[in-house]
């Protein structure tokens, strides 16, 4: 197995503020043994790696070197009924990296049952492939057209909206891939429709204006 495994175990453990003692208790492996694994003194079996991965809450594949290639037929899909959007995960192992990429499809008129905008850590980059996407960012609304991009701190509350009768499709990249899974698995109850307010866009002099775009 790769010699990078020990370093990755130590990195994950320290990022989660776990001590060797805590990891030992969670895996039923001795502190000395875990210490040697982190120092790469031992070759680790897959069974042991599985116990460590489970204790750290990650997929075992995170410990292996090499690029991650996802074939088109391997993509995992998730449907969020509450927002009427489907998500295509472009990597089968997003937990291995600090960047996750998805293709998001927003069904027509998903605004018939909008949710409260949500926020999380990291950054997001949006590139519109098809349709017109309305984005609620904090208390502002922006309409994005094919070819447009939006880059923002995901700590701002945001929500994807499709006010048209056509599908909206966009590429989305986020620096906190785990947050999407958390969001999907912990969907809050549907809330009252969001008041989008007046559409505006920031100009260089700081004044707001209504942006123009394709009809």
Short description:
With 215 residues, the protein is an alpha+beta fold. Helix content is 22%, strand content 26%. The strands form three sheets. The chain has a six-stranded antiparallel sheet with strand order 1-2-3-9-4-7, with no helix packed on it. It has a three-stranded antiparallel sheet with strand order 6-5-8, with no helix packed on it. It has a two-stranded antiparallel ribbon with strand order 10-11.
Task: Outline the structure in words.
With 215 residues, the protein is an alpha+beta fold. The chain folds into two domains: 5-63, lambda repressor-like DNA-binding domains (434 Repressor (Amino-terminal Domain), Orthogonal Bundle); 72-209, Jelly Rolls (Sandwich), CATH 2.60.120.10. It has five helices and eleven strands. A six-stranded antiparallel sheet has the order 1-2-3-9-4-7, with no helix packed on it. A three-stranded antiparallel sheet has the order 6-5-8, with no helix packed on it. Strand 1 (76-80) and strand 2 form a beta hairpin. The protein is elongated. The model is unreliable at 183-215 (pLDDT under 50).
CATH class of the largest domain: Mainly Beta
**CATH topology value of the largest domain:** Jelly Rolls
**Count of beta strands:** 11
What profile does the largest beta sheet have? 6 strands, antiparallel
Oligomerization state: single chain
Roughly how many Å is the radius of gyration?
21 Å
State the end-to-end CA separation.
Answer: 57 Å
The mean pLDDT is 79
β-strand amount: 25-35%
Structural class: alpha+beta
DSSP helix fraction:
10-25%
**Element pattern in H and E:** HHHHEEEEEEEEEHEE
CATH architecture of the largest domain: Sandwich
